[in-house]
Amino acid sequence: MLIKQLLHEAFADDDINLQALIMFLVFEKQVLSMEDDQSELNLYFLPKHEKRMGEELTKYKRKMKMIEKPSCYRIFTKQNETLYIYATSEIQASGYASSLNYKPIDISYYPDRLIYHENEYKYLSELTTGITAPSLLGQNNIELKYNYRNIK
Questions:
Q1: Would you state the pLDDT for residue 141?
Q2: b/e sequence 25-50, b meaning 16+ C-beta within 10 Å
């Protein structure tokens, strides 16, 4: 897949971090082009570049006034609870879970989908109307009756 196609998907998915990474490398630093293969991005995901790229992208997003939109994250915890947290990033979701005295062991993006809430099915977007991030949307201790590693 070409970088321009990946950028198109990032816009469709509201993935502001991937948008910022691509735009920073293609337009700001001009080290990649839109016609390059997406595998060219792998270099920038290496652990040795994580801290510096994180700082660079934070500055770039601020400069470009790119605001992260909150999303829902599903967090499996050591307390055998599954939390659904509305947050702007995985880091914020993890920190918020920790502030609620939970120990996160696995975090994943949870797209807008139909969930069972208070005896009826609702879309996550219906539950997030009018609330601020971070917020706890719900929790479930039933899901972890199975080992979470087998659920993936």
A1: 65
A2: bbeeeeebeeebebeebeebeeeeee
Q: Which two tokens stand for residue 48?
A: 């040795």
Tens-place pLDDT, residues 27-77 = 999 999 999 999 999 999 888 988 898 889 889 988 888 877 788 889 999
Is-contact 121 113, C-beta < 8 A? no
pLDDT score at 105: 92
Q: Which of 105, 100, 91, 106 is nearest to 137 (CA)?
A: 100
pTM: 0.56
Structure tokens at 107: 């975090």
How close are the terminal C-alpha atoms of the chain, in Å?
A: 25
What tokens were used for 131? 């609330």
